[in-house]
Amino acid sequence: MTPPDPEAPAGPFEEIASGARPIEGVGTAVAAFVGLAEAGPIDVPLLLSDWSAVEREFGGLSGGSPLARAVHDYFENGGRSAVVVRVGAFGAEAEWQGLAALESLPDVNLLVLPDVAAPGTRMPAEAARAVVSEAAAFCERHRAMLLLDAPADWTGVDAIEAAAASDDGLAGALGTDSANAAVYFPRVRTADPLGGAPVAVGAAGAVAGVIARTDATRGVWAAPAGTDAAIRGAAGLDVSLKDDELDRVNRLGVNCLRELPGGSTVVWGARTLQGADAAGSEWKYVPVRRFVLFLEESIDRGLRWAVFEPNAEPLWQSVRRDVTAFLHGLWRDGAFPGRTPDEAFFVRCGEDTMTQNDLDNGRLVVEIGIAPVRPAEFVILRIRSHAKPADDD
């Protein structure tokens, strides 16, 4: 009997690498909180996975800290990972230092500033606007979403409409009109940890938890609002809104909370600060904006290997293949309303997306169209990465 050839294949099949580099979706619901606390290190971001860890590091609810209350409400409503930064003093400069401590973290997706509009201890208006402006800039740099509590002087719909009608609009009242920011009104009434009557607290921490819960159960492309977006632990609202008032406020780009029959309190709006009907922005809705931020970050990270490849057709073909596979998987998961992939997205990468200057300098440009709201109504993204110039050895 002839012995087997040791160099022959082990079986009838030969494995050939496809060359595909699958793009992985990044996380979407790590929430950062910056503010005053009873205890803990100052200007040191700690990543914590439950409320007991927050109590241990920063103190509990008994001290009345808006930061502690916001983080508590985040975990109670479905949050799983929180980055908490304790600032050293009350004021704009301390908040800026707290934000600076987050700069090195790559995975912050949501940002809450509980001290800025906290009833009774809120900052002077000018300082609050400056902090919010800096926080919005942070979120734009890091592809994150800023969740704001409504200013304490928004005591009803008339006050909101007056702010929107002013020369600077809501940006003048809040400090930003960024598409990476959303504001929530009114405050939530919740149990006093000392056993007294319910107290009014900002809703942003709880909303961050609702967003995390929605991401986990339905996806980042789903609206964190409606009857499924109940705020756990709420005992009502400090301002009750009628149906017509809800409509008036939502049309201005302000997200309302609502009390449903039976006592449930829910998030009833999902608009960014560019979400006013009159603005006509493509970033009108929070889920659309967050979904695009998720896509940009995922694809940007997933194409980092391209920096070692010549900026030529073989690379472009690989990029088109990998990005298309990623988007096709999301389409199968229900991220797009289109019945077919062609109605849901397209991917372009080649001489039609790059200038000669781009090619000469190793700039890789991928153009992506996605239809997150209606089939074939595309939002266009241009993602810029790096590759070797085509003639670089």
From TrEMBL:
<feature type="domain" description="Tail sheath protein subtilisin-like">
    <location>
        <begin position="115"/>
        <end position="273"/>
    </location>
</feature>
<dbReference type="Pfam" id="PF17482">
    <property type="entry name" value="Phage_sheath_1C"/>
</dbReference>
<dbReference type="InterPro" id="IPR020287">
    <property type="entry name" value="Tail_sheath_C"/>
</dbReference>
<feature type="domain" description="Tail sheath protein C-terminal">
    <location>
        <begin position="280"/>
        <end position="384"/>
    </location>
</feature>
<dbReference type="Pfam" id="PF04984">
    <property type="entry name" value="Phage_sheath_1"/>
</dbReference>
<comment type="similarity">
    <text>Belongs to the myoviridae tail sheath protein family.</text>
</comment>
<dbReference type="InterPro" id="IPR035089">
    <property type="entry name" value="Phage_sheath_subtilisin"/>
</dbReference>
<protein>
    <submittedName>
        <fullName>Phage tail sheath family protein</fullName>
    </submittedName>
</protein>
<dbReference type="InterPro" id="IPR052042">
    <property type="entry name" value="Tail_sheath_structural"/>
</dbReference>
